[in-house]
Design a protein that fits this description.
Chains A, B: Belongs to the NADH dehydrogenase family. The structure is a homodimer. Chain A is of the alpha/beta class. The first copy, chain A, has eleven helices and 25 strands. Helix content of chain A is about 30%, strand content about 25%. In chain A, the strands form eight sheets. Chain A has a five-stranded parallel beta sheet. In chain A, strands 13-12-11-17 form a four-stranded parallel beta sheet. In chain A, strands 6-7-8 form a three-stranded antiparallel beta sheet, with no helix packed on it. In chain A, helix 1 links the parallel strand 1 and strand 2. In chain A, helix 1 packs parallel to helix 9.
């Protein structure tokens, strides 16, 4: 890869998510060369992907060009590439655009959807981890309603209007809320010749409550809100099979549904080339010590979702969400600067800022450290926090404008099938 | 096709562009059933596609859901479908989702890119007539610069940074201006390790002036503006071949360019099934009389780009742009209502509101009926007119916000490769 050699040590960061971007930003003006690599030329604000999928926000408003983040920083380089392997002996990464030597390597590759080995579900269900996936889901939802108009077969029509969300975490809950808002405000007007009451939104949750990483009161309230919105909630049920039409579970429950959204799990997006013992099996995350150093290596780090730092409070690693990634990125920058300036390193300590989820219009649940609240105020807090977590003034302004418009007008105007998802005969 | 039968005559409108939308809007609350058919579920504001292609606007801000246009109008139906043929004997249209009987048929299918039979150019060049095409071009432009970083072959790198725009009409001129602004403000910062001065923007125009449907002073000024922005202008030259790398012309001039944008001509997007003598050969438009009635039929109409109404002032038909389409859509609604209420029909008379084109920041040319002007004021007029021609308050607000932001910050933030265009090895 075509990066000039300098006398500075080279830090290669793989991944431009929250962790990688925060690290890069905090390494500026140091005696380091920084190369950031991502398979996209933009950073994705994943927490709002579900609003793209449901026609509430344009995709471009939650994506931010990575080159803009690092522009005007001397010694910073970005390369659009996919890393296929790392060679820790030769201190090289191998990518689709060539090899690159590193002095320090930081793996910040995030997470990907975990199908737990079920290739049929992987093939037929929809995921929502990237902008194109969310756009595919947006197209599919709308194409389903267009197709529902065409069939006189009632079973088929109902299947086209039946949405099964597997997984009751924040993604599943927020998507269900947004679909329910579409059902209430948009679809009956857009499709007056369909009986939209027949549209079903189902959440199938393996555990015994939704939002099981949040407080019990948050779970309860979220369920209340969803039930009030007409969402069907199934707990203690596992989806075991899906062939594009029939959803099977480990119980008597089954569905006929044209759309299954798989939000039941994520795993680390690990890279090839690390010793196997670095990887913690189940969630496929990379074991790191309290300095985010990958166990067994001196100059390889992992941060964010892909890193598993086992602590007393988090024996299975920190939650795979934005906050630990942001904090680890920032913290690793501190430690790297400490290392090159011969100062003592500090172990990473996660500051839990809490968790929140929104459930449609005017409703959210928020768990902060000392206080928990739900309802309208929580919803405003949710919006405020998400708005200010977005990177870029323009993105914030466009998202804000859309939210205000959608709120006042009860609308979602980006219900556009820009690239159809279904293959037409 | 599943449309209920009523006692009202059924008007089938094929195409949701300016003409089709204006017709539909003006037929509301009449004793008519209106079925609007389009292959997309959204209306495209084509005049701003070049801003999508150059990262200045998000695609969703210039697209508007057609269902929203016609919602709450009784007796209105929309179907997402492609019309393959019309059967004027049986008064039916044949689509990919079935057949539909009509009492009145209105063909408002617009125009498509005219390659004048050159299949190689069609295969290798980019067009900019639809949202996906513009997004493909946006991806390709950005991918070219990413790839230019990777090659040490100077010739190849220059070809990747060489843009050939074929056609010096408004589309070609506006795109060239936008590319020149990218070259000035964005690309040198995004790609500090490339010599962006090597980027070439070329307009190849077959005639002896740019914007040849506008006044001579507009042409001259547009050329001045473009030259000032560093755009190379070649007049009286025809591109005759392109193989994805080498551009051949009918003169000694040739280019090595990874990107050719074909903006050299459009033709009517006609439908199969009309008698051949209805079609005017060269531009493939449908001959209509002064009531937009297709010659030889009593109940088949054509409006907008696809219609060719030969008048004294426009013997080859009206210009293929938004204004005639909007006016014909409105006017045909008037005549249709007149017909069902037994009032006299009025022939269509085109009110030429003038033409305008923008050439980068602060520069535009405007020809109005009585006055012509160029420069900053023209640029504001251009923006004002385009902003208020957009359908939908949200779209206007988002476009306005982007323009203000881009203007103040000298920026274009939607430089995102959401769906890569090039096939990667």
């Amino acid at each position: 890869m075509n990066i000039p050699k300098t006398s500075f040590p080279r830090v290669v960061i793989v991944g431009g998510g929250f962790a990688g971007i925060m690290l890069a930003k905090n390494l500026k003006n140091q005696e380091l060369q920084v190369v950031l690599i991502d398979k996209n030329n933009y950073h994705t604000f994943q927490p709002l992907l579900y609003q793209v999928a449901t026609g509430g926000l344009e995709p471009d408003s939650i994506a931010f060009p990575i080159r803009k983040v690092i522009k005007d920083i001397p010694n910073f380089y970005f390369r659009l590439a996919e890393v296929s392997e790392i060679d820790t002996n030769k201190r090289k990464i191998i990518t689709n655009i060539g090899k690159l030597k590193y002095d320090y390597l930081v793996i910040a590759t995030g997470s990907k959807t975990n199908y737990f080995g079920n290739t049929k579900i992987e093939k037929f269900s929809m995921a929502m981890k990237s902008v194109p996936q969310s756009l595919n889901l947006r197209s599919l939802i709308l194409e389903n309603f267009e197709d529902a108009l065409l069939t006189s077969n009632l079973e088929e029509r109902n299947a086209l209007m039946n949405f099964v969300i597997v997984g009751g975490g924040p993604t599943g809950v927020e998507l269900a809320g947004a679909l329910a808002e579409m059902k209430k405000g948009i679809l009956p007007k857009d499709y007056p010749d369909l009986d939209i009451r027949q549209m079903q939104i189902n959440i199938v949750q393996g555990g015994n409550r939704l939002l099981n990483t949040m407080s019990e009161i948050a779970s309860e309230k979220a369920e209340d809100f969803l039930i009030h919105l007409g969402v069907n909630i199934y707990k203690n049920v596992h989806v075991v099979d899906y062939d594009g039409y029939k959803v099977d579970t480990n119980t008597d429950l089954n569905f006929e549904a044209a759309t299954v959204i798989w939000a039941a799990g994520v795993k680390g997006a690990t890279v090839n080339g690390l010793q196997n013992e670095c990887i913690i099996e189940r969630a496929e995350r990379i074991k790191v010590d309290e300095f985010n150093k990958v166990k067994g290596y001196k100059n390889v780090f992992a941060i964010g979702d892909v890193a598993c730092m086992s602590t007393n409070q988090y024996p299975k690693g920190h939650p795979m969400m934005a906050q630990p990634a942001i904090q680890q990125g920032k913290h690793l920058a501190y430690n790297m600067i400490a290392e090159i300036t011969n100062k003592p390193l500090k172990p990473f300590i996660y500051k839990d800022k809490g968790a929140m989820a929104t459930i449609g219009r005017n409703k959210a649940v928020v768990d902060l450290k000392k206080i928990r609240f739900q309802g309208v105020f929580a919803w405003f807090v949710w919006m405020f926090v998400h708005l200010f977590s977005l990177i870029g003034f323009r993105n914030r302004a466009v998202v804000f404008l859309n939210w205000v418009y959608n709120y006042i007008r009860f609308d979602r105007e980006t219900r556009l099938i820009i690239r159809p998802f279904k293959k037409k005969p």
